[in-house]
Amino acid sequence: MLRIGILGAARIARQFCDGVRGSDKVTVAAVASREAGKAEAFARDLGVARAVASYEALLDDADIDAVYNPLPNSLHAAWSIRAAEAGKHVLCEKPLGPGAEEVRAMFAAAARAGVKLAEAYPYLAQPHVRTLRDLIAGGAIGAVRQLYASFGFMLDRPRDIRWDASLGGGALLDVGCYTVSLARVVLDERPTRVAAAPDWAESGVDRSMVATLEHKSGAAAQVAASFAMAHQRFALIVGEEGVIETNFWNHTSAEFPASVRLRKSHAPNAPFALVPADAVNGFRAEAESFADYVAGGAWSGATQQQSLDIAETLDAILASARSGAGVLLA
Ligand SMILES: NC(=O)c1ccc[n+]([C@@H]2O[C@H](COP(=O)([O-])OP(=O)(O)OC[C@H]3O[C@@H](n4cnc5c(N)ncnc54)[C@H](OP(=O)(O)O)[C@@H]3O)[C@@H](O)[C@H]2O)c1
Predict the structure, then answer these.
(1) How far, rounded to the nearest angstrom, does the alpha carbon of residue 90 sit from its chain's CA centroid?
(2) How close is the Cα of 138 to the center of ligand 1, in Å?
(3) Treating both helix axes as pointing N-terminal to C-terminal, what angle do 177-187 and 304-323 enclose, rounded to 10 degrees?
(4) Does residue 231 carry a pLDDT above 80?
(5) Global pTM?
(6) Could you give the CA distance from residue 5 to residue 33 in angstroms, rounded to a whole number?
(7) Which of 25, 38, 94, 116 is catalytic?
(8) Could you read off the pLDDT of 97-135 as tens digits, one per residue?
(9) Higher pLDDT, 254 or 323
(10) Is the alpha carbon torsion for 177, 180, 185, 189 positive or negative?
(11) Residue 33 CB less than 6 A away from ligand 1
């Protein structure tokens, strides 16, 4: 049983606790908050055994094996590095760092400490993404030439951390990272050039972002992220022999299952077939895969190289958005 401690009584951590409850591989053993009362309320609501009154105290706790880090993006690197230095494995919320430099420092710290560090993308642990990857690897749509992925919603909480530039806010880092990670995983290569079209919010973060990613193979991806549109989570993957559509839920559950639809044909009127995939709780699948990883098994999520490539791509998209010019990646 992997004993996880949570750094911060974040909203997403509530869903994480709900998801892993009842697992025989993972347990949430403690939650830490900057405010004792907040940690206590969280522990009471979610059935977590211990509430801890500071992040430091959680890292000093010998009965915690691993930390789940759902802090604002700007704090991912500092607290994940401190957790690694305290000998804890780290499952850190996406995006791993606000930039590639931080991500490199995080992996270096984990390597020095001999602990595992992984980027939390529940969707990569979900059966529909395994199905999608198996279909593509098995040649169901031939070589992938283009991918379009969009992830947006209406962010109507004015004080949300996502609007705060100093906390690593912005649509690209918050939800664009899903579309960039999907392109990295499906195309199995990092982009060589990106060009971005931003829509900036008054707070200085990107309210919406659209970017084109070019790749050495000739494959291209168009990725979109937004805080200012109707709920939208969708990907279209087009190969030489067929097309896959998926509604690309970032964390599935029985109420919000994901779907994968396949059309394997050049005919314009060929129907799409629904490819079945189990609807499991994405947080549970992710946390159990992380426990396997800590125990020496496989990890279902982004590899270290993929996480680094995703971070460098996000940096390049933001650089392109600021300069108005395309940006080359080495
Ligand atoms: N995987 C997913 O599907 C998914 C979904 C949503 C969010 N996320 C990620 O999860 C992370 C948290 O998102 P969220 O929406 O859950 O955020 P949130 O509710 O605002 O929680 C962030 C927590 O960070 C702590 N914190 C420490 N310093 C802070 C500061 N200066 N300002 C604000 N909070 C501070 C707070 O905990 P205490 O006050 O208790 O210390 C707060 O509860 C982000 O990295 C986000 O990208 C992932």
Answers:
(1) 14
(2) 38
(3) 130
(4) yes
(5) 0.97
(6) 11
(7) 94
(8) 889 999 999 999 999 999 999 999 999 999 999 999 999
(9) 323
(10) negative
(11) yes
